[in-house]
Automatic annotation (TrEMBL):
It catalyses: 6-phospho-D-glucono-1,5-lactone + H2O = 6-phospho-D-gluconate + H(+). Residues 8-229 form the Glucosamine/galactosamine-6-phosphate isomerase domain. Keywords: Hydrolase. It is an enzyme of class 3 (hydrolase). The keyword Hydrolase applies. The lineage of its organism: Bacteria, Pseudomonadati, Bacteroidota, Chitinophagia, Chitinophagales. InterPro entries: 6-phosphogluconolactonase_DevB (IPR005900), 6PGL (IPR039104), Glc/Gal-6P_isomerase (IPR006148), NagB/RpiA_transferase-like (IPR037171). The gene is pgl. It holds the Pfam family Glucosamine_iso. This is 6-phosphogluconolactonase. SUPFAM superfamilies: NagB/RpiA/CoA transferase-like (SSF100950). Belongs to the glucosamine/galactosamine-6-phosphate isomerase family. 6-phosphogluconolactonase subfamily. Pathway: Carbohydrate degradation; pentose phosphate pathway; D-ribulose 5-phosphate from D-glucose 6-phosphate (oxidative stage): step 2/3. Hydrolysis of 6-phosphogluconolactone to 6-phosphogluconate.
Length: 241
């Protein structure tokens, strides 16, 4: 695991935008397509908006990228809480991506059906071979959740399904999420975490005893891939560095 600490969220977004742009170009030297799994929530917004502007808007080969989502809140696309909607507003509507290469988790159908459909999309894309995303971007909630793997929810222990839907009572909302084993097959996973409100949780996730029910983010340990945590000084402030 590699830890990258930036001064503040703005610096962090700059660093991650540069890092992602280099990584995409490097990977595309050896392959034709790049699979990029986006996260939702508020933390990646600044990063997405930087990627949508020069120099990244011009140097990233957008037409070669296939976009997927790590998780979705089962609310209509028009709802501000919809993870895909945020990515469209800030990034995907602003750069020359190919619409067919954008694979959203649908919320205009039932969550169970959406999860089953998404798993089929992934199986078709990866042709039933090993599912290996090139890059998975993740966030961490102050309760230690990542994707929609929330503390204490059975989905945390899912080993078979690639995609699961479930009701999250704490938010009175259905969630659709990739499962941990799928993300752990990725070539590279990048966590983005900012803010003093996440400092104690981050310390527990990185330096604490393994307890996936309490801190689902600890489940993310790519088998053969890279794991990077990009955090700001406030989020890192409780760690023993
Ligand atoms: O609910 C969610 O939260 C996490 C963390 O979001 P943040 O606002 O604390 O950055 C996010 O990664 C996930 O995609 C989202 O559905």
């Amino acid at each position: 695991m590699e830890l990258h600490i930036a001064k503040d969220p703005a610096q962090l977004s700059e660093n991650v935008a540069a890092w992602i742009s280099n990584y995409i170009q490097e990977v595309l030297q050896d392959q034709e397509k790049f699979t990029f799994v986006l996260s939702g929530g508020s933390t990646p917004k600044q990063l997405y908006s930087l990627l949508a502007k020069p120099p990244y808007a011009e140097i990233i080969p957008w037409e070669k990228i296939h976009f997927f989502w790590g998780d979705e809140r089962a609310v209509p696309f028009e709802d501000e809480r919809n993870n895909a909607r945020m990515a469209f507003d800030v990034l995907l509507d602003k750069v020359p991506v190919i619409p067919e290469n954008i694979h959203v988790m649908r919320t205009d159908i039932g969550p169970e059906q959406s999860a089953a459909e998404y798993e089929q999309i992934l199986r078709k894309y990866f042709k039933d071979e090993e599912l290996t995303f090139d890059l998975v971007l993740l966030g961490m909630g102050d309760d230690g959740h990542t994707l929609s793997l929330f503390p204490g929810m059975p989905v945390v222990h899912e080993e078979e399904a690639w995609v699961k839907a479930f009701f999250l009572p704490a938010q009175d909302m259905y969630r659709i999420t990739l499962t941990a084993p799928v993300v752990n097959d990725a070539a590279c996973v990048l966590f983005l975490t900012t803010g003093a409100n996440k400092a104690l949780t981050l310390k527990s996730v990185i330096e604490g005893t393994f307890d996936a029910d309490k801190f689902p983010s600890q489940l993310i340990r790519p088998q053969d891939g890279e794991l990077h945590w990009f955090v700001d000084e406030a989020a890192a402030s409780a760690m023993e560095l």
